[in-house]
Amino acid sequence: MPGPKDYYKTLGVDDKADAKTIKNQFRRLARKYHPDVSGAGGEEKFKEINEAYEVLSDPKKRAEYDSLRRGFAARQARNQGSGFQRVSTDWDSGDFSEWGHLFEDLFGGAGGRTAARERAVPEETVQLTLEQVATGTVVALTVQDFKPCVVCHGQDPRCPRCQGAGQVAEPSRFDVTVPPGVEEGTLLRVGRHAQLKVSVLPHPRFVRQGADLRGQLMVAVPLAATGGELRVAPLLGEPVIVKIPVHTNHGKILRLKGLGLPVRGTRRVGDLLLEVVLRFPEPFAAADDRLYQELRGQHAETGGEVRAPR
Ligand SMILES: [Zn+2]
């Protein structure tokens, strides 16, 4: 399988050549092979030179190209016959992700647009906190995006930037709006042909269940017996007062309306569901122990049933 084109060879420079050497060599070759000078035979060569220079003259593109070239050489040494062909089929696999940025630089002309339709859409992932999901957020992202060619506006097949395709792939910055209530795995469009995948980080206190949030609320046994109030911090905002009804049992679900997550694209907001977990206040004081002994005397026959876990 062919590797990436050897742009250094095309320009006839060493792969350690500095920017000035590359520029001088490009100018020399461009003059020599310009179609007006060399006729039709030179056109292909002229395109190749321009393509090579487009990458090697841009420090960022050159760095990507170099790492691509090293990676290809290493893979080929490891595994004869793999490499380039897998790019089109395994576009999203991590090992080949480095191809993503450069691919459209290498094939940024008419061929590049064809390739863009045939392969998977480049995808970036953003990890959001549950708080960011609740409020919505904006993610700044730089991806390759096609832009109109300002050099020839698609009018010149010999255009060094676009070869007449009228579009070139360039790194472009996008501010991607992530709406409140976004779901895990949601794909948001970025520019014309990239997308952003949403991943939601685990939260230490809450789990998500659709638009509802679930958590466990620790309640002391005496408070659960007599009923009372607790201050509870929801996902966002100030603590709220939660009423603990008299005789609250372990496992009871307390529903706090409107303290869940927004439902994407609506005004509805989910609830916060708190599952009561009974706890003995610690440490056990001698006075507490005497009271519990007294209570046990009255309920010695309670308990002993077995049921399947829920
Ligand atoms: Zn152009």
Description:
By secondary structure, the chain is an alpha+beta fold. It folds into three domains: 1-106, Helix Hairpins (Orthogonal Bundle); 121-201, Sandwich (HSP40/DNAj peptide-binding domain), CATH 2.60.260.20; 207-298, HSP40/DNAj peptide-binding domain. Helix content is 35%, strand content 24%. The protein has helices at 7-11, 19-33, 35-38, 43-56, 59-78, 84-89, 98-106, 110-118, 130-135, 221-226, 286-298; strands at residues 123-128, 137-148, 167-178, 187-190, 194-200, 207-209, 212-220, 228-232, 240-244, 253-256, 272-279. The strands form four sheets. A four-stranded mixed sheet has the order 6-7-11-10. The chain starts with 6 loop residues before the first helix and ends in a 12-residue tail after the last helix. Zinc ion (ZN) binds at residues 149, 151-152, 156, 159, 161-162. Zinc ion is lined by residues 149, 151-152, 156, 159, 161-162.
